[in-house]
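Sample intake sheet
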Amino acid sequence: MSRRFGGDKRFHPIDGTPMLARTAARYAEVFPNVLVVVAPGDDDAAALVRPRCDVVVAEDAREGMGRSLAAGVAAARGHAHVFVGLADMPFVEATTLRRLRSLAGPGRIVRPMFRSRPGHPVGFAEDHFEALSRLRGDEGAREVVAANPRALVTLWTDDPGVTHDIDQPPAAASATHKPPAA
């Protein structure tokens, strides 16, 4: 909803590319199937990622991130796992995504950590799809991770992009965001 940003941050340029397009392109470098979840009528956002990514419309997206996540998981049925990435985290390195993908396996939840801070994307094996499909509100998948501590596989990384989300626009003097130093 970009409340703190003051406008739709998905369209904010990062080095000349809308944030959503940049994030989606990064994931498409690594994952063969990328689903981007949008709200009904969000045609401009959908246009930013097509044809490189598939678009899923979350009919009840206004109910919170949990419902959007549930819609994405429903569209991913038949896949062995999903990785949940956030549009406002455009600085995750492709190398990190590849390493996370290599850790995915049956029953696992894969999560990156940077300087003891949990990050994104978080990967879930299909064993967790049912729990993810019941999510509501804005909590996202934290409760699924918390309920399955034995399934959690942690990737310790020096990639600050896994924790760097953009919640506020850059200062007026700067037109670009930069990832924090490692």
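Comment: Strands lie at 13-14, 17-18, 35-38, 54-57, 81-84, 109-114, 117-118, 122-125, 152-156. The first strand starts at residue 13 and ends at 14.
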